[in-house]
């Protein structure tokens, strides 16, 4: 029995790009840091929340690259001669990637109490009915 991928399924035409996006997302190197939530805030809106305690707004960047939302964080090393007896708060960089469907737009980003909120909205698709004329060959 032959295993069919989504892009090669006979009833799924034009979904090759979606399959490539899923593969790219799986390879994006997202580890478990920082932790995040994704919530549906209404029928057509979502909110991604990342726990970014210790990061200032200037340490974070949010970009949209080819339908992929990329959130990066890089803290400046401000040790300034400090001597740590224990350093349990990591000052490491991160990158989190989320693949967005067509029609999903990035709204505002809000920093609040060590949490970064990124709001997304999805445009409601229009129902289009089109009649195709059959010509004689």
UniProtKB/TrEMBL annotation:
Keyword Manganese: no
Keywords: Stress response
Gene3D superfamilies (alphabetical): 2.60.40.790
Family: Belongs to the small heat shock protein (HSP20) family.
InterPro entries the record matches: A-crystallin/Hsp20_dom, ACD_IbpA/B, HSP20-like_chaperone
UniProt domain SHSP: residue ranges: 27-137
Gene source species: Roseovarius atlanticus
One protein family per Pfam: HSP20
Name used for this protein in its record: Heat-shock protein Hsp20
């Amino acid at each position: 029995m032959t295993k069919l991928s989504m892009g090669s399924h006979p009833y799924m035409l034009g979904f090759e790009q979606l399959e490539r996006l899923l593969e790219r997302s799986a390879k994006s190197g997202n580890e478990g840091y920082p932790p995040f939530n994704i919530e549906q805030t209404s029928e057509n809106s979502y909110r991604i929340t990342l726990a970014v305690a210790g990061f200032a707004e200037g340490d974070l960047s949010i970009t949209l690259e080819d339908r992929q939302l990329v959130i990066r964080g890089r803290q400046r090393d401000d040790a300034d001669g400090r001597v740590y007896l224990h350093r349990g708060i990591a000052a490491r960089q991160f990158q989190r990637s989320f693949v967005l469907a067509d029609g999903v737009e990035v709204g505002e980003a809000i920093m609040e109490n060590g949490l970064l909120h990124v709001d997304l909205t999805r445009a409601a698709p229009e129902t289009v009915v089109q009649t195709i004329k059959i010509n004689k060959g």
